[in-house]
Amino acid sequence: MKLLKPLFENNRRWAARLVEEDPQFFQQLAQQQTPEYLWIGCSDSRVPSNQIIDLMPGEVFVHRNIANMVIHTDLNCLSVIQYAVEVLKVKHIMVVGHYGCGGVKAAMSGGKYGLIDNWLGHLRDVHRIYRHELESLDEQEKFDRMCELNVIEQVNNVVNTSILQDAWNRGQDVAVHGWLYSIENGLLTDLDVTIDRENGLQQS
After folding, report:
1. Looking at the DSSP assignment, which residues form a beta bridge with residue 190?
2. How many CA atoms does the CB half-sphere of 60 hold within 13 Å?
3. Catalytic site residues?
4. CA–CA dist 195, 184 (Å, integer)
5. Coil/strand/helix, residue 116
6. Rg of the chain over all Cα atoms, to the nearest angstrom
7. How far apart are alpha carbons 69 and 134 in whole angstroms?
């Protein structure tokens, strides 16, 4: 426990700083949670959601996993999406990948990593789907493009959940976006794959 003492000291300084800036901050925060954004991102410790978009606690609902995946059998992720959409009524869902993603790199390597191979299999499917596009690129370009393609596929996975389809059928205003973050310069890139109710409802 003594080894973690600095973290508690950091916490107290952080809380004191926020109270100094706004004495009512934590009292107001405790009353309700009304974020407009759901961030689905990678677990990578270098990609902190709130800090990247400079939002305070309470302003963004967050789900993170290895390589920012949205898998239709992942009840954890689907439960987060459902709560965000149906209870919190978020307006925007951002799937945010990042260049240099270790999960993407591991999936592309073809190596064996144990239990995580079951998770990486979904990334290998993305690689297989786009193999003709990727094979013409050099290794760095291929890696970067795979990070982008993975986000695009995960945006489609969000859109095709019953949660989003039902929300749009109810007339709910929620859009899904695909972004890439660069750890090298701290900047976000919009992949311009936004899907909302007008263009996201499945054709019957």
Report:
1. 179
2. 20
3. 42, 44, 46, 98, 101
4. 28
5. coil
6. 19
7. 20
